[in-house]
């Protein structure tokens, strides 16, 4: 008998539905928050979302300090600045609204409010000693799944690395998921963030750290995202596709919380640090190559992934695995991402350096089902850059 054995991690509560964000004030009251640090970015302020949330909080008798200065691919300094704003406002609660960049900044601020010193001191595994203040995360991209994960990823320019504050203390108290908030995402961001979500779903499934629990999340996520990403890119107002994407990205978040990610992520991180490549662009373009590289080691799983996404049940394992890889390549093309990396002028010397930096993510590389060396990274990067 194959024994079932795993340890699972979960977000305490999720609320999902169109219009769900309208209840945010009530949710904060229930969680006993009185002074909220609202972390978001300037684009959400321009879209009127920041004011809308602030009004909802005012109506619930909750006071708000707004920090709307998060940048894409945020740094430890931004997290420190957000925490400073929260400390100055004596905040006892954090709301993060936005993509992974805003939510990760918010999650870091949540623990920095109760732990001394700067964010960089806590990058690594389980370095936070005190629980943070309670937090609600509201995603506006269907991408990172950060609203349910136990990591806040921040660029550390001193170390020239993108590193996680990995601790259960950054798992939000509530993930509040409202698909309507994703309707304003432009097609290119829908594509890149959606490919990040798909990368989470696929990499967590083939990961050496996958568990019987994470595999359930991975497969449902692959189904939701694989069948709806193209629709959401082509018609951003298709709310069914938007809902499926947001559900899928949250499930993929639960999948990586329990099963980890693989080599696409290890390669994508240094590309963001050194060349400003958005996380989803890097992951999405690299994903088909990493699955192709890992094909033989993950043959059975690649075949199951094809069955899940296509509904085809009668194809031989080899053929199904190949079809899944083709599907990933086609999706990169049909979502318009195929040539996106060519815009970053990444030279041969850069590729060498990126390949070496990839190996710094040793824990992530160890998850890859097939061995993965800096030579493998170099060969893949030469094809896509
Ligand atoms: N914590 C985790 O578990 C986890 C997992 C994967 C990635 N990440 C991190 O998340 C970051 C990337 O997050 P992301 O991919 O969500 O992108 P992002 O947060 O950087 O957002 C991308 C762009 O979309 C804009 N945007 C967001 N929502 C919008 C909306 N509804 N309408 C219009 N524009 C909108 C943002 O302002 C930004 O310019 C990276 O730093 C990555 O490393 C974290
Ligand atoms: Fe990711």
Which secondary structure elements does this structure contain, and how are they paired or packed?
Layout: E1 14-16, H1 24-30, E2 35-39, H2 42-46, H3 49-59, E3 63-67, H4 76-88, E4 93-98, H5 100-112, E5 124-125, E6 134-139, E7 151-156, E8 161-166, E9 174-177, H6 187-206, H7 212-234, H8 239-259, H9 263-275, H10 279-293, H11 299-310, H12 317-334, H13 348-358, H14 362-367, H15 374-384
Parallel strand pairs: 1-9, 2-3, 2-4, 4-6, 5-8, 6-9
Antiparallel strand pairs: 7-8
The structure holds nicotinamide-adenine-dinucleotide and fe (ii) ion.
Give your account of this protein's structure.
The chain has helices spanning 24-30, 42-46, 49-59, 76-88, 100-112, 187-206, 212-234, 239-259, 263-275, 279-293, 299-310, 317-334, 348-358, 362-367, 374-384, and strands at residues 14-16, 35-39, 63-67, 93-98, 124-125, 134-139, 151-156, 161-166, 174-177. With 385 residues, it is an alpha/beta fold. The strands form two sheets. The chain has a six-stranded parallel sheet, with helices on both faces. The protein has a three-stranded mixed sheet with strand order 5-8-7. Helix 6 runs antiparallel to helix 7 (212-234) and helix 9 (263-275) runs antiparallel to helix 10 (279-293). It is globular. The chain starts with 13 loop residues before the first strand and ends with a helix. The mean pLDDT is 97. The chain binds nicotinamide-adenine-dinucleotide and fe (ii) ion.
Tell me the series of helices and strands, N- to C-terminal.
EHEHHEHEHEEEEEHHHHHHHHHH
Range of strand content = 5-15%
Query: How much helicity do the residues have?
Result: 40-55%
Separation, N- and C-terminal Cα atoms: 47 Å
Structural class: alpha/beta
Which CATH architecture of the largest domain? Up-down Bundle
Domain count, please report it: 2
CATH top level assignment of the largest domain: Mainly Alpha
CATH-assigned homologous superfamily of the largest domain: Dehydroquinate synthase-like - alpha domain
Q: How does the overall form come out from the CA principal axes?
A: globular
Ligand names: nicotinamide-adenine-dinucleotide, fe (ii) ion
Number of helices: 15
Mean pLDDT: 97
| Unreliable segments of 5+ consecutive residues | none
Total strands: the figure is 9
Q: Strand order within the widest sheet?
A: 1-9-6-4-2-3
- Sheet having the most strands: 6 strands, parallel
């Amino acid at each position: 008998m194959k024994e079932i054995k795993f340890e699972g991690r979960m977000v305490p509560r999720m609320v999902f539905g169109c219009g769900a964000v309208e209840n945010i004030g009530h949710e904060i009251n229930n969680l006993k928050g009185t002074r909220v640090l609202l972390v978001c970015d300037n684009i959400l302020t321009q879209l009127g979302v920041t004011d809308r949330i602030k009004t909802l909080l005012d109506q619930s008798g909750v006071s708000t300090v707004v920090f709307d200065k998060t940048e894409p691919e945020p740094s430890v300094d931004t997290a420190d600045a957000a925490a400073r704003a929260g400390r100055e406002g004596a905040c006892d609660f954090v709301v993060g609204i936005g993509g992974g960049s805003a939510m990760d900044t918010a999650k870091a601020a949540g623990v920095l409010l109760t732990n001394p010193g700067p964010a960089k001191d806590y990058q690594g595994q389980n370095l936070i000693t005190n629980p943070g203040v309670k937090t609600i995360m509201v995603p506006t991209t269907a991408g990172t799944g950060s609203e349910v994960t136990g990591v806040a990823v921040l660029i550390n320019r001193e170390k020239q690395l993108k590193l996680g504050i990995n601790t259960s203390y950054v798992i939000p108290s509530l993930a509040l998921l409202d698909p309507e908030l994703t309707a304003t995402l432009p097609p290119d961001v829908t594509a890149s963030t959606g490919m990040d979500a798909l990368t989470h779903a696929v990499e967590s499934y083939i990961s050496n750290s996958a568990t019987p629990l994470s595999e359930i999340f991975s497969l449902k996520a692959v189904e939701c995202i694989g069948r709806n990403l193209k629709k959401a890119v082509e018609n951003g107002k298709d709310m069914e596709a938007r809902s499926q994407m947001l559900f899928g990205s949250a499930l993929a978040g639960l999948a990586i919380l329990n099963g980890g990610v693989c080599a696409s992520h290890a390669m994508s991180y240094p590309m963001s640090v050194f060349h400003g490549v958005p996380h989803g662009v890097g992951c999405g373009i690299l994903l088909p190559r990493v699955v192709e590289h890992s094909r033989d080691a993950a043959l059975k799983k690649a075949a199951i992934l094809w069955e899940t996404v296509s509904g085809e049940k009668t194809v031989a394992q080899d053929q199904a695995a190949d079809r899944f890889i083709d599907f990933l390549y086609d999706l990169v093309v049909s979502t318009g991402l195929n040539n996106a990396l060519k815009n970053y002028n990444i030279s041969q010397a850069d590729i060498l350096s990126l390949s070496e930096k990839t190996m710094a993510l040793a824990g992530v590389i160890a998850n890859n089902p097939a061995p993965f060396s800096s030579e493998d990274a170099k060969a893949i990067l030469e094809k896509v850059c």
